Fold this protein.
Amino acid sequence: MARTFTYPRPRPRGLLGRKLEADEQLVLGAGLVGGLLVAWIVTSILLKIAGFVLVAGVCAWATLVPYRGRTYLRWFEIHRTYRKLLRDGSLLYKSKVPYAGRFADGRRVPVDVPVGVPRDMDWITARTAFGEIAIVLQPHELMFTATIEVEGQRDFGSLDTVDKEALIRAYEHLLKTTADSGGRIRRLQWISRVIPTDPNAHARDARSRRDPESPSWLEQSYDELIRRVAVTAEDRRLLMAVGIPYTSDLVAEARRYSTLHEGYAITLGQEIEAFIRTLGRGQLRHVRNLDESALASYLHHAYDPSHWIDDTTGMDRVTCWPAVLDARDKKHMASRSWEGSENSWYSMTAWVRELPVLPVGINFLAPVLLYIQDIILSVSVVMHLVPTDQAITEAMADATNELGQADKKAGRIEDPREQKAQSASLSTMRDIADGAAGTRLAAWITVTSSNRDALRRDADTVRAAAMRAGLRLDWCDEEHHRAFANTLPFTGGLLKEGL
């Protein structure tokens, strides 16, 4: 029998168990104060009640009631930020790399990054037993990130159910040991990048280059080689970005070396090397580290797919960004590089609002990851690893919240959806107590096409595939530039711990 996974259906929550942001608290407080002020000014009892309910109710509705998948206050902030960026010109980015030049010692002059990308990043090169790796410090996020390319040790799709379940358990063990090992890695981001390719390109190139005067044995040998080469219609890459929080303990250890930069490189390099050695526990094979040129090439490719991922010539922390990024359109963003044509590539990003509500099989993401053809796609899942003690505390709070919100009045039939949410919360609490790792995750999907019409068609295809997988998508209108950055290997897309 196939193993199934059940995710609780998110429900609109009240104040109980919900953390309100500062602007939401301000609006609620203003509504309460405004309602009391109206009740104090007005003389009639009916007008006092009506005024208080009207002022306080409108503020409560704008802050708490779901509206177009979020709340009215959240949409108000999105509109305000979009109009502000539109006025100051930030949504139209033009790279200054051609005019920045270099320092006398060969170093690149830093340039501004596109809108949506973490600001003031600092790049560090660390050495490991598996090669050099680029570590990016994001000061505003208080996070170090590094990226490696991995692949499965075995073909997951060709395995039987028992072997698939064993692989899932091995991956769960990897997450648990990473969370509870006492190491510094607290975030993992998985990026599945799918790029359509031409499987007959090599054969056509061989025919065009064939020398009619070459010996027959050489032609036969080359024809046999072409037949043996496995060429597919898609290039699939699986990247894993690891996130290490910036802490005082890390700074103190880095200060033991001659410079802080060297201390970060050595300390974080050792941490990442130790993590790479544990990948075998999750049935994963390490392919390569992404050093500065490889990471820069991938970032440039994400904005302009005509730049091939493995083309690292001239790529560094400055040339990784696109030549032009236009995010002024509410429905998509456009970008291009210098090396391609003048035509832009168009991208849309959606966040996965809801995971499957009904029980699903192990391959429930296959409609999105495997069955979509001829579409440039990035699927990003960001996981924040939570130690077991903290995870079970949060699970107990969530279960208490679910039980506390249940309406169990006498004579009322209990909503079966509430029963499922309560049982899922209790099951999660028991699973963590039995040794399962706690994770907090968010998922994002970016679709890229060569023109607007193709982008709309591809977005509809991805939405239909997501529905078959039991996912619900929300396209990030007016903030595609920021959502797009969540599918880059910067472990973005989740609030910092404690917020």
Remarks:
- Residues 169 and 282 are 8 Å apart (CA to CA).
- Confidence is low (pLDDT under 50) at residues 1-18.
- The first strand starts at residue 66 and ends at 67.
